Fold each of these.
Amino acid sequence: MEYLRNQNQDISTLSGVGVAAKASYAELGITTYSDLLLLSPRSWEDRSQVRPLGKLGDGQVANTLVEVLSHSYFGLKTGKKRTLKIIVRDASQQGDGRLSLLCFGRNFLEKTIRIGKLYYLYGSVSLHRGELQCSQFELYPATEDGDFPKQFGKILPIYPLRGSLSQRLIRTNIQAILSQVSQFSDELTADLKQRYDLLDTDQAIRFYHNPPTLEALEQARKTLAFTELFYLQLVARRHKGLEQRSKATGASIPSRLELACIETLPFSLTRDQLSSLKEIRQDLDSDLPMNRLLQGDVGSGKTLVAWISALHVLGKGAQVAFMAPTELLARQHAESGFQLLAKLGIRLAFLTGSVKNKERKLLLQAIAEGEVDIVIGTHALFSKEVVFHNLSYVIIDEQHRFGVEQRLALLEKARVPDLLLMTATPIPRTLSLTVFGNLNISTLHTMPQGRKSVITHLVNEQSRKRMYQAVGVEFTRGHQAYFVYPRIDDSGESDLRDVESMYEFLKSEYPSVSSALIHSKLEEEKKVSILKDYQEGKLGYLVSTSVVEVGIDIPNATCMVIEHAERFGLSALHQLRGRVGRSHLQSYCFLVFGNELTEEAKQRLKVMKESTDGFYIAEQDLLIRGPGELTGTRQSGYLKLIFASLTEDLHLIELVRTEADRILASDPGLVKAEHQMIRSVLSAAPPFEEESCDA
Ligand code: ADP
Ligand code: MG
């Protein structure tokens, strides 16, 4: 896609794009020609085939030439305005039949749609008591010369809209770009195009926005999806540290340190923890770099596996870096790591932005001289100032919070042999085949013994009171709770319960229970001290924005109340719910929802109610959001695919993967003449950007 991505002209140079349109485009993430070219239509309307009135049934779509027969009015006589009804007959070669156009709110059409004239009509019809009707329609006057109006006789792309944008503007803008660029360079080899019946890139992008036939559209989409997946695959595969490793040989045995650590645990490891540890150990002992994903639902005990695995290399004098997506979480890991490992003589250091001046200098020096065994921190661990003595193993927690590209950038920088990624957002099979192409996966399917699965209640306004009572009962048992809200302060949307006012409300609801308000705008130190008090049981509940989403581990918390649950995505809801149910105590999750639910929101809540299985939830997430809707937002962490669909293109993904492998196997450096094109497309790719990824 790299050539298609390189059209950097600003869209405001296009005619019709003023301040308002520019702002609306920005809402869709569109600022350049490329962004607009790569805007995928939501759907296409097939207006290439005439569909005469006589052959239509209820719910079908009319697409034909009509003649206007009469105007009349209908509706209540009670003083209200009556509605114009235009009766038309089919005037195409192929058809007959009549249709009533109901002009709700469009009585002005009486003046423009004239009796006896011919128009092109498009709209979906319904059948009422034998009368064919249509209330959502488009009419365009037929011209003398018999040419179709622009909107007819073709397959029309329907783009997603925002603000002041109209289909017309987007279509015109895209056509303008397509006519300005005489030819887009090709991105696939002749061999691939021939074997898979694919188009030239130039042809494909033109057909995609302007398909002459449905077959051409499908071929265009397939070409673009193939190209997109192909380069994604190549980038992932060629990346250092992502080489396929062979199945490890020999039985790796746990080191003395590991055994000593396991010995100190008050519980025994789950079977999956043991087998994951074994897999990691084998990778660490092999001379190929480890590239492994440890996936397991929230609370399944991944962190512990990571610590123990770190001991495997520490025995050999190496250093380990442990990275978390937020400072809060990094601090928590530092604490748990310290508790677990310090008594074994392991030297841990927590590196954060708040360690400053002299202290920082000393810490950096100790890391550089190998006086620290494990360094814990955020992505700042990989900034230039941090120099390791012998960094050989990097562990990244909640890796889905880091974008795919950011992660690759980080690997580039770290150049470490061994990498363990942890995620509680399981990667659907299709995804693990793409960008995670060469990742080996260890999975914790089972929860530690004695865990009860969280009971989830859907709560509407009527049952809100009962919920407060239920949470109150948990307080009397000495358990703790979280109340989570989507926003910080009240900015006018009256139905939104904002944290601050709810905090006040809850204080009066539970006068004898101490509490605190926590949100992302608080100073880091304040957050830390609140969490510490909560952890020590000095606070009964936290009222918070989704700060608590990731990783916080407080086993005594048994209630998670999520307000406006309909506003959260599935993976966020699952993460939030995972903050409870972390001990033998029975826990509860209350999903409070408002009156107006979209169909998607209903489905999400239903999924949450019926399952606590993160794998199932991730799959459902993909299905509900569907192809094209998978944005690379922080919340989902998935990469953004434009043309390919993770739910529907499994076959194509597998095929592309095989092709990419075949090419790299025969020509790892892509130096052969026939791969020249692939190499230059790859080198046209923009460099990875680093962004801040604090929550
Ligand atoms: P994850 O990172 O997968 O969400 P954690 O590693 O934070 O899970 O573990 C959650 C909690 O379960 C921690 O308090 C941890 O000490 C505890 N734990 C981990 N493994 C076990 C086990 N095998 N048995 C009992 N508790 C465990
Ligand atoms: Mg965790």
Amino acid sequence: MSDFIPGDILEPLLDVADVEVWDGGGHVPRASLLEKLATCGGWLSMLSDTIDAELLDAAPGLEVISQMSVGVDNIDVAACLDHGVVVGHTPDVLTETTADTAFTLMAAAVRRLPEAEALVRAGAWGPWDPWHFLSGDLHGSTIGIVGMGRIGQAIARRAQGFDMPVLFTSRTRKEIPDAVRVDIDELLPRSDIVVVAAPLNDETRGMIGRSELGLMRETAYLVNIARGPLVDTAALVEALAAGTIGGAALDVTDPEPLPPDHPLLDFPNCLVVPHIGSATLPARRAMARLAVTNLFAFLSGEPMPAWLPGSARQRLGD
Ligand code: DGY
């Protein structure tokens, strides 16, 4: 295990494996990880682990990696296939929580909550002023969802409760109730809020760059709840500095963690939180449970409930 997993969730694994949990605090240093994996058959990994050919070479007995996240951009899945390693992950169980986070960020950014809260804390709360801290409305705003997977669809369902027209992009044709599929070049200028909800891969890296930001409305907000490198950070800093977009709300950034002196933190209209999209206790317990269930299934010779078909063939599942 790369990290702590609650004892009641871990328990079933103890019947089928000798389990070692990293207890060195923080992330497992690379050297320790390579040393430990040299003798492991299975591994419960985190999105902060870089899983590449070097690591797989150092783990000749490794048959299964079960990652406690839905995103697997830290994993070289093709290398896992080459090394005969099956990869599990944790889709579905965090979908609704992450969609809640998207809405929380949208509402906070559009209604300028961070700025308003900072003013109160700074002791600058003056008499009520009808023209102070004005913002746009969340309800009725057009939302453009970039990437209509599970989380994008959960965001679209919530948008309907806020009377928000929904536009979306998707690689594949999808029928989503009351939502219109458009090209990104059409979505960007028509949206009041652009939410990035696509997986990170070679095709999507940097998909929101200078020209895409240039297509957004001057009043529109960019919200990223997927992965930092989907957005070109330098281009976003430029757009915020030039005032060509209304603001941003980011659960994920590139780099991550964001250094305290990073220019993104200079903009009061750029809200940044530290990759907490699925960080509720119920969601994290469900993710841990699914990661353990995936490992348990593999080690028991059963099909894993959530594995990546692009990784090695499952012992029984494929
Ligand atoms: C995931 O599961 O990929 C999320 O980013 C974790 O919050």
Amino acid sequence: MKTYKIAVIGGDGTGPEVVREGIKVLNAASQKGGFKLDMTDFDFGGARYLRTGEVLPATAVDEMKKFDAIFLGAIGHPDVKPGILEKGILLRLRFELDQYINLRPVKLYENVHTPLKDKGPEHIDYVVVRENTGDIYTGAGGTSMEGTPHEVAMQAMIYTRHQVERCVRWAFEYTKKRNKKNTLALCGKTNVLTYVYGLWERVFHEIGAKDYPGIKRDYYHVDATCMWMIKNPEWFDVIVTGNMFGDIITDLGAITQGGMGIAAGANINPDGVSMFEPIGGSAPKYTGKNVINPMSAIGAAQMMLEIIGEEKASKLIEDGMKKTLLKMKSMDAGKMGMSTTEVGDDVADNIAKS
Ligand code: IPM
Ligand code: MG
């Protein structure tokens, strides 16, 4: 029987609670799919940092490379200054494991409320391919004369052709494989960020024209992308963009698909170890109350199986999620009409019965 080694990082706040439900569902799916998941827990997160003073052990990245995938809950602790855990754990793993794609589906399921008037599941079903290793996120920059009226602060937007090419190529391949509208849109800002998005635009059209003649190419400035994501989400199929714009537009996308309770993402290294996570944060105020929505973690688990090659089992999870979603009153913590564990049990049950 095929066995996959999964590293589990529950993390902070409600992270461990939602991951627990994800694992419940993964176990149900693996039984049906005829494969095994061998899970190993890691205690990375704010609590460990406060206890030991160490954000991530020196061996952590090498350790992670021994796994087939990483399942992450949430990183972020109210007693730790913003930036330390995000940069030291989440971004470090994304960068050092070279997870250069951040795949974030924006999909509205039946019975899930969207704040977009007159839009339903038939209108909201697209995917954002966010570049995940470059951009302002690299941390290049600094300050001088800090604390004086002449203080200078600088943070640079950096992209190499290599980074842009591999991301754009992956996005074209994904659009082709998805085979829905066969349309890839570049989201940029070529009217102001002429250097960086000039590079993106050239690469996008070069690769598209040469290797993907069957894929239609669209272009939107990032500000306009935000407008159309609200007014005409049905225009989109796959959107490819840089790290910073991708971060911003995927929160906007998430709220149109029901919010942080349901939005999931995958940090993918196509040739290495990928990491799957709910997009929502650690939600400290709901910790330990059994009220947080685990659907986002279950969605991350579903993406994990798809990416590691267990597509049938992944589909079983999605079908199971859809049935449970029909019973839920809301995607918001405490308003679901079900507890965290009940949602996980219900999805697992749907899978077992399928
Ligand atoms: C996300 C988050 C992270 C990011 C933060 C927590 C560093 O907002 O995954 O979208 O900016 O990438
Ligand atoms: Mg974000």
Amino acid sequence: MSSSRKVEKARSVRGTFTVPGDKSISHRAAILGGMAEGETRIRNFSEAADCASTLACLEGLGVGVDRSGADVRVRGGVDAWRAPAAPLDAGNSGSTMRMLAGPLAGRPFRTTLTGDASLSRRPLERVAVPLRAMGARVETTDGHAPLAITGGPLRGLRHELPVASAQVKTALLLAGLQADGRTSVREPMPSRDHTERMLPIFGAAVERDGLEASVAGGTRLRGAAVDVPGDASSAAFLVVAALVLPDSEVRIEGVLLSPTRTAFLDVLRAMGGSVEATLVRSEPEPVGTIVARSSALRGTSVPPALVPSLIDEVPALAVAGAFAEGRFEVTQAAELRHKETDRIAALARGLAAFGARVDERPDGLVVEGGRPLRGARVDSEDDHRIAMALSVAALGASGASEVERAECVAVSFPSFYEVLGRATGRA
Ligand code: S3P
């Protein structure tokens, strides 16, 4: 059942908020916990549907999972994983499918992973090629899901990623823990480093040298406690809403402030945005408070070197660009075409429907900002971040808008519309 959501122009957004536990960190805590011997306790586990997919896949492999809301206990042990009785369903979650491929490459049985229509269009050879080089049998369906992995003894690998991808990096490091010898992964640009920061908590040393991370084979993980900070990518939508609406101020507490995830704040500041980030603790991940206030924004060119650190925030940034004076531009971001939908095309269509001037480029987009937006009927194209970005645009557009297929926000931020209701004083 697909449902649309009416979003009316808002006077302002105000208030103090928390956002659900970080999706990327929740996936990793669950998978590392599933591999580790003994019990792992995860607090503030993400309420995202994607992270529930990871837990369900782990259960399919025989991992014990007890969940009570945001508290999750995982009883793992990768040596005890057994062939699942049925294909594992990763749902809409590329992270689940790509990251689990790593540990499965070392398991001596065949596992099939399936996904929904969107996930079944996303590229998998980027993870399949290096896992094959390590010795696993990995079958894709013309480069896509379903993915079948028959694991076995692995040899360590030195791999250079052609495109920065934290999911592929994670898969290879997790496969490497079970391999003979060292496995190292080199990236062209830095991507999120949550796996590198979390592995030592589970007892595995990670050597890091610039853009390279490596692990020793034959390393066993032991259960640990993980406290998941709020999701910076979810916070981005509230931050942009506060910047573009008049008389607004939002404060988001307990949010992840990893520099591999907060480059969008740097871009918003370069656009003239009033955004403060205050660190409250820095280990194992930087966490703190973000305060954002109404600002007169101007366009900018997003530095290509920052693209991997803000790839999930481009939808929110493009909305900021539509409300800014002058030209907002993102280039070298062709990866956006391989997300839950083709986000370049979806943003261009959605923002144009509001009356924004948007130019789609093969590797990015240009928004000539500053034109008043008018309410419109727009489509999320079943992509959670497109739904949230277009909803924020709708808050600043005249009259009422309708966001079709809006329920997909549950993929990362199920309470998004409740939070928006509180922020706009309508809840
Ligand atoms: C993620 C990595 C990124 C990102 C995704 C989450 C992760 O994907 O877009 O939402 O948790 O490692 P890629 O690895 O495909 O760049």
